[in-house]
Design brief:
This protein has helices spanning 8-22, 25-28, 90-127, 148-161, 175-182, 185-188, and strands spanning 43-49, 71-77, 80-89, 137-139, 169-173, 205-207, 210-214, 220-221, 224-231, 235-247, 254-267, 274-280. Strand 10 and strand 11 form a beta hairpin. The protein is flat. With 281 residues, it is of the alpha+beta class. Helix 1 packs across helix 3. It folds into two domains: 3-124 and 239-267, Major capsid protein gp5 fold (2-Layer Sandwich), CATH 3.30.2400; 129-234 and 271-280, 2-Layer Sandwich (hypothetical protein PF0899 fold). 30% of the residues lie in helices and 30% in strands. It starts with 7 loop residues before the first helix and ends with a strand. The longest helix is centred in the middle third of the chain and has 38 residues, at 90-127.
């Protein structure tokens, strides 16, 4: 790494890029306020308005007095902070400097993203409107089992009932349910080749009105997993690599690197989320 050649801004950008590639839940949310955060404790005010009344119009008639917009504010607080701290021995550094540093940064990014995604998933599950929590299902392929694809359809219908925009809808499923979907021709036969990608950090496909993502961070209690569906406007997320710095530890012949990741999220439209507890048959 060589501290005298270390450029924090370059490595911060590289780390954040790797971080975004590794996210699942965070990639389902909007990032509208990300540029407004700088440190833990920052708070961003999110302004919103209520529904606009739509009235019939008749030619040559007087229209009513304009509605007074009633605004409200939500607060997006940056409450979470995690860090990494690793060192590269001088011997290893001399042999393979750049590769070791790149590999370490990718591993750090994956760990930070995994921790943040688990936090986001728990927050989303807790803030779903109770009216949008569907009856629990037992998903499988046997007689009497609930169908994996039809479970997604039911979530999609619930969002439609609430007038949630169709564009940008998403759902996140655990690996075992993703396996059932891949055996269903209604899922794998739909869409383009790009829709059939199975890389973590990208949708695994499209079906039942959703971009379908897979994650090991789907909230679970024992064998029961909480599938969460929504659209981009349901919640917002913001993160920042606050610091990346290099240093020489006093007790070893090595270069070390540490970094601080700050983030926070807020459900802004609980009615635009739906969930169902699913257990494998």
């Amino acid at each position: 790494m060589a501290i005298d050649n270390f450029t924090p801004t370059l490595w911060s950008a590289k780390l954040l890029n790797n971080l975004n590639d590794a996210h699942v839940y965070a990639n389902c949310l909007n990032r509208d306020y990300e540029g407004q955060i700088k440190q833990v404790g920052d708070t961003v005010k999110i302004n919103s308005i209520g529904r606009i009344t739509i009235r019939p119009y008749a030619k040559n008639t007087v229209i009513v007095t304009p509605d007074t917009l009633v605004g409200s504010q939500l607060m997006l607080a940056i409450t979470q902070a995690n860090y990494f701290n690793f060192e590269i021995d001088d011997i290893d550094e001399a042999q393979n400097n750049i590769k070791l540093m790149n590999d370490a940064m990718q591993e750090a990014a994956w760990g930070l993203a995994d921790t943040a995604d688990a936090w986001i998933a728990a927050g989303l599950a807790a803030d779903v409107d109770i009216a949008n929590i569907l009856a629990p299902v037992t998903v499988g392929t046997g007689p009497g089992d609930d169908d994996a694809y039809e479970t997604l359809v039911d979530l999609d219908v619930q969002l439609t009932v609430n007038n949630v925009p169709r564009q940008g809808r998403w759902v996140v499923v655990p690996p075992w349910l993703e396996g059932l979907l891949r055996k269903d021709p209604r899922f794998v036969s739909f869409g383009t080749d790009a829709n059939k990608g199975a890389l973590r950090g990208e949708p695994i496909g499209s079906g039942a009105g959703f971009n379908v993502w897979m994650s090991n961070n789907v909230p679970f209690a024992g064998p029961a997993f909480t599938l969460i569906a929504g659209y981009k406007g349901a919640a917002t997320y913001a993160e920042q690599i606050d610091k990346v710095e290099a240093f020489r530890p006093q007790d070893s012949f090595s270069d070390a690197c540490r970094g601080l990741h700050i983030f926070g999220g807020k459900v802004t439209r609980p009615y635009a989320l739906a969930s169902v507890v699913a257990t494998a048959a």
